[in-house]
Amino acid sequence: MLAGESKGNLMNKHSVFLSGKVFSLAALSSLVALTGIVIGVAFFSSSDEPGLAQKADESIAMISAVKPAPVEGGSIPGPVTIPGIEKKQEGFDFDDEMKLKLKDISEAYAEQAKYPSFSVPIAADELAAKYLPDMPIVTELPADLTNPDSPSLSILPSKFRYFNGDELSALAQISGLPAEETSYVSARLVMQGKTLGNASVLAIEDQAHSYRLNFDVVGLDAIQWKENITMEVEFQLADGTYTRSVTVEYLKTIAQVDDIAAAEVQGEYLLIPVYVSTDKPGFHRLQANLYDAATGAPLVHLTGEEQLLSTSGMLTLKAHISALKASGSEGPYHLKDLMLRRLPSEPDYITEFGRVEESSFEVEGYRFSAYQDKPYTNEKAQRIANELRKLGS
Fold first, then answer.
1. In the chain, N or C terminus with fewer CB closer than 10 Å?
2. Looking at the domain assignment, is residue 119 inside a domain?
3. What is the pTM for the complete model shown?
């Protein structure tokens, strides 16, 4: 009799040992799939732990079970492999790579558990990828797609998301073309297959083959919510003409940030009241980044949410002392990169945006000793960290 068998309760040859328990292979498929769901839900169903999704992508893919096809009689022919699982003498367990992935994610969750979801320290390498929602997307390809060494053509819009009344502009460049050669650029703006307007093109001094594009457009006032608009650029080189394009968003705004009030310390928080006005009362969310005024270093990503019952109101951003201490700055600060949204609700159930005219607001700083030094624990993140740590052990 095999090790672990007991009289009247023989284990199937496909049984699995995992974390001190024995499972059938079918049960393991369910367990691994459930683990993927748990991690996936933890990462993607809420904003409690922002910034961890990138770490989760590979792990979730690895622990997504390859479910065996059902066969008559319930037997499983031939060897069965499940990504992230390896066979051991006593059964099956997560392989070393999967355990490292789970440990890595658990450590990230444990770190995030120290901060509220609405007050998260910004790592220097995270700013552009996670906390600048209007970062433009650059389009860059070789002129001759069959020859990667041919001159490179690129288009960089001034931003990704434009609001009604904004000026649309972009930078068009040709790299790898000798300065003495000739190039020309023209551009137009296209929406739903129709040309909205052409661009005025200005060559940039001291930058060979670099052009500033300013679009003169009509018809954008008719946009009721949001439209994708294409900046289509034609590059004329000595060996031919090439067309490249990039898509941006153009939105009608229904709210705006008016001003901020003086910041003050209450308990363990620095409170920053922000005055807003809206055409549509409802649930509004404001996100912003706090920077050190002296160094310009990004410090804390802030989120405030409130149900606005009238056309004017206030959203309060709250920076926790633990996040401020992690940044190492007592201020003064600059509040930048503000993004105001009205979340989906009656009657349209769409996300609508607000305008922010000022690019930066000054925020007063306080000595850390002025705060109540009260540690924060995100119980949800800590609970997930503990479970992932067990799975990875």
1. N
2. no
3. 0.69
